[in-house]
């Protein structure tokens, strides 16, 4: 980063802090100014469409304004830390350094890094690819610390824990928050291990946000996760809400639960519980024991696509649809383009759902992993389709991933039951063929609407 850019970033960081203090004095009047700050700080094109919708909603004092008031009701120090780490560090300073590194090193540099602190989990959920990893793998505290130290030098200040169940490593998670107070940490979690003590730790470190997995109402959720889990999740959400702590929901939509998790009743339930965001994931048939029948058919995926977008204009919660929102970020975000995944054995995967790699973080640097053959293949291949409703090289373009894996010599990183890439993508071919016609129709309609 050159001197001019450094000065600009320092000045802008100061301006944001001053604006936040100003808004604290009169949030109702000054909340509309939040989006102008976000627009200046965010990477170019980063969820631009959604930011426009949020800006309009705030101006009209609609659902986005209501969400903004909920954010302002959070613990003041937690809120301040979030804005500093997420907007200034991850999206302003970080994106500038990422871009500079990309140009210098000719490789992708991620906005976020997903880490599996452990493969251990206190549950065994139906259809969970992480269950294939067994329960004996862990990234050491020092390894996680080193990954983040390396990442910050490249411009990455956003870290997301997956698993396994990351909360099995509560103490180490908090230690990492302490060691890197300039980073924001989010964790996908089943929520059952969140208790009063951990809420107090979240208040102390200020830079940790849970995304609690919920697969629908009690019957659907406990049918996949086990009896009593739904009630434990409700208890965790109540604790977080009582302590004015931010949290969201993560949900995987399947052919079995898609109606539940996109219903108005489900939205209202999680909003009332205090969730500020919901992250939707399409079921992926990853692993030799995966259940392809859980993949939604074209009509079911279309219903999810339409319902999520409809609720964006009426419900005070920020929603992200991992598979159907590719238009906002120009296609597939894996391979280090916006994120990568490091499993509990240290393997650096291009995607949390695609477990093939040439690099292990115990053997190479993070930068070298980003320069590895499979990551370079992603960089050269993205976007994998001009139709942004068909972004993935596995799910919607199953001819792409086997070609990349074979040409780069990448190997399966599943230590329990390695899956041949052709076996994986063959499960996706019927789905891809069925979805193409629907996706092309929806995408054409979307382009016409934009005109």
TrEMBL record:
<keyword id="KW-0479">Metal-binding</keyword>
<dbReference type="GO" id="GO:0051536">
    <property type="term" value="F:iron-sulfur cluster binding"/>
</dbReference>
<dbReference type="InterPro" id="IPR058240">
    <property type="entry name" value="rSAM_sf"/>
</dbReference>
<dbReference type="GO" id="GO:0046872">
    <property type="term" value="F:metal ion binding"/>
</dbReference>
<dbReference type="GO" id="GO:0003824">
    <property type="term" value="F:catalytic activity"/>
</dbReference>
<dbReference type="Pfam" id="PF04055">
    <property type="entry name" value="Radical_SAM"/>
</dbReference>
<keyword id="KW-0949">S-adenosyl-L-methionine</keyword>
<keyword id="KW-0408">Iron</keyword>
<keyword id="KW-0411">Iron-sulfur</keyword>
<dbReference type="InterPro" id="IPR013785">
    <property type="entry name" value="Aldolase_TIM"/>
</dbReference>
<protein>
    <submittedName>
        <fullName>Radical SAM protein</fullName>
    </submittedName>
</protein>
<dbReference type="InterPro" id="IPR023885">
    <property type="entry name" value="4Fe4S-binding_SPASM_dom"/>
</dbReference>
<dbReference type="Pfam" id="PF13186">
    <property type="entry name" value="SPASM"/>
</dbReference>
<dbReference type="InterPro" id="IPR007197">
    <property type="entry name" value="rSAM"/>
</dbReference>
<feature type="domain" description="Radical SAM core">
    <location>
        <begin position="107"/>
        <end position="323"/>
    </location>
</feature>
